[in-house]
Amino acid sequence: MKMIIAIVRDVDNDPVSRALTMAGFGVTCIASTGGFLRRGKSTLLIGVEAERVEVALEVIRQTLTPPAEPGEQRAIIFVLPIERFEHF
Questions:
Q1: Taking 80 as the threshold, does the pLDDT of residue 23 lie above it?
Q2: pLDDT for the residue numbered 80
Q3: Which string of DSSP letters, residue by residue, matches 14-68?
Q4: Residue 72 needs a FRET pair 20 to 30 A away by CA distance; which of 6, 13, 23, 38 works?
Q5: Are the beta carbons of 51 and 3 closer than 8 angstroms?
Q6: β partners of residue 24
Q7: What's 76's DSSP letter?
Q8: How far apart are CA 25 and CA 61, in angstroms?
Q9: Do the beta carbons of residue 28 and residue 4 sit within 8 Å?
Q10: Using CA atoms, how far apart are residues 66 and 32, in angstroms rounded to an integer?
């Protein structure tokens, strides 16, 4: 099991979340702010089976909109191992 933490621009939150959900991934969104200009960001938490990580990352890559300004980051993504998972 892996946890993908994707920090995306607010404009990409809804399209990326919808695309991931349509591809069968569960997504939790947390509103966040960051960067030099304190622009709105969304942090997406995606729990995924290890063998489906690349599929989820490709969905994210394909859904992100082009950068608004040259050099703007579209997303920051972390993939973390999950030692234990419980669902109640």
A1: yes
A2: 98
A3: HHHHHHHHHTT---EEEEEEETTTTEEEEEEEEEE-GGGHHHHHHHHHHHSPPPS
A4: 23
A5: no
A6: none
A7: E
A8: 15
A9: no
A10: 20
Question: Shortest CA distance to 20 belongs to which of 49, 50, 57?
Answer: 57
Q: Which two tokens stand for residue 7?
A: 């920090």
Tokens of 82: 């999950």
Residue position matching structure tokens 């030692």: 83
| Single-letter code of the amino acid located at 34 | G
Give the tens place of pLDDT for each residue, 28-63: 999 876 655 566 789 999 999 999 999 999 999 999
* Token pair for 69: 């300004």
pLDDT of residue 19: 98
Q: Are 81 and 2 in contact (CB under 8 A)?
A: yes
- Tell me the whole-structure pTM to 2 decimals: 0.89
